Amino acid sequence: MFDCHFHIIEKEFPLQANNGYIPDEFTIENYYERLRGYSIQGGAVVSGSFQGFDQTYLTSALKRLGPGFVGVTQLPVTVTDEEILDLDRHGVKAVRFNLNRGGSAGSEDLVSMANRVYDLVGWHVELYLGADSLISLKDKIPGLPKVAIDHLGISDTNLEILLSLVRDGLAIKATGFGRLDLNVNDTLRKIHEVSPNVLMFGTDLPSTRARRAYSDQDFYNVIEVLGEDQAERVFSTNALNFYGLENTSS
């Protein structure tokens, strides 16, 4: 499995309260212990709202996790090209826009930032939507060079627009099942029917602020809905292709 979405939270690195919330620690050791029994070939470490624009935790985590792991960071619009190039050398592959909880650049900077990082280093943008975010973004997303949507679009209010946006260069993360306001099984089926290449699975560990934490049943649920052959694409192939790691797996 390539875990396309998880967080590493270590108290020696800066954390900032988001709406009064500071998460518990979740170290690399905690991560591997929780997924003991899984065959993890890599994954994407994602910056949370509570990590703001700090990069030190991310570059440290990527160094210790090693090959096969990439970073998804948050950047201010004032970031320099040199800083982006340095993060790219550390294994960062994307910029996240947290439109649900904040802590990132805002949607007004989405188009310019998406084009900037793609042109400079080939990165994509990842969007953590609010319940109605796609209503205002539906005309912007088709023009973005490469984009991923977190947590199946978060809400059924986004679903029909999301389905209409499925295209090459778009990925949808099958993650955070314990935080969604939609029918997970129906949503997986509908997205997969539009394109078998866009869904990619992640644990969302440690499931900060979710109504329930990640369960092993979430993994098996994808198999039950899509079947083993198609689930393999969702667990590994689609994400490796999207993150540009298809030639590094073995």
Q: Could you say which overall geometry the principal axes of the C-alpha atoms support?
A: globular
Task: State the CATH superfamily name.
Answer: Metal-dependent hydrolases
Largest sheet data: 8 strands, parallel
CATH topology description: TIM Barrel
Mean pLDDT across residues: 92
Number of domains: 1
Low-confidence stretches: none
Instruction: Indicate the structural class.
Output: alpha/beta
CATH class: Alpha Beta
Order of helices and strands: EHEHEHEHEHEHEHEHH
Contiguous helical run count: 9
Helix proportion: 25-40%
Strand content: 15-25%
Distance linking N and C termini: 12 Å
By DSSP, the count of extended strands is: 8
The CATH architecture would be Alpha-Beta Barrel
Radius of gyration: 17 Å
Strand order of the largest sheet: 1-2-3-4-5-6-7-8
